[in-house]
Amino acid sequence: MRLHLLCVSRRPAGWVTEAGAEYLKRLKGRLDLQVRELSPATASQPEEQRQREAETILKAVPAGAKLVALDERGLAWSTAELANELAAWRDEARDVALVIGGAEGLAESLRQSATRCWSLSRLTLPHQFARVLVIEQIYRAYSLLNNHPYHRA
After folding, report:
1. Binning pLDDT at 50, 70 and 90, where does residue 95 land?
2. Is the whole model's pTM more than 0.85, yes or no?
C-alpha cells in the first residue's frame, strides 16, 4: 500500500515543508507516503474553479487507488479511528489517495466519487496547515498500530 497526499496549492511555505519532512523521515522505510502538489486552477467563478481542480485531481489519482477527500463536511475520526482506517487500507493492499482541495474547496462531484470523506475539524483550516496535520496524524496512527510510544492517549 502506498499513500498519496494530493494537495491543490501553490508552493508550500518553508515551515510546511520542514514540518512535513520531519514526519515523512520518521515514516521512511515503514509506510510509503508521497506528497504531491497540484497547481490551483484559475476561473472567474468558484464552482468552475472547483470543477477544473477536480479534473486535475482525478487525473493525479493512481489507477485503482481508493480516493479519500478531506472536507469539513466529512466524518471526524479520532486518532484510533484513523488507525483503524489505516489498518484496513493496509489489509486491502490498495493505494490510497488523500486529497486536500484548493482555496475554494472540493467540487461536489469529487466528494461524491470519494470512497470516504474525512474531516480534520469542523473549522476551516489553512491548506498548508491541513497538509502538516494530515502527515502528522498518519504518523501518529501508524505509531498507534505499531505500539510505538509517540501516541500517548
Report:
1. very high
2. yes
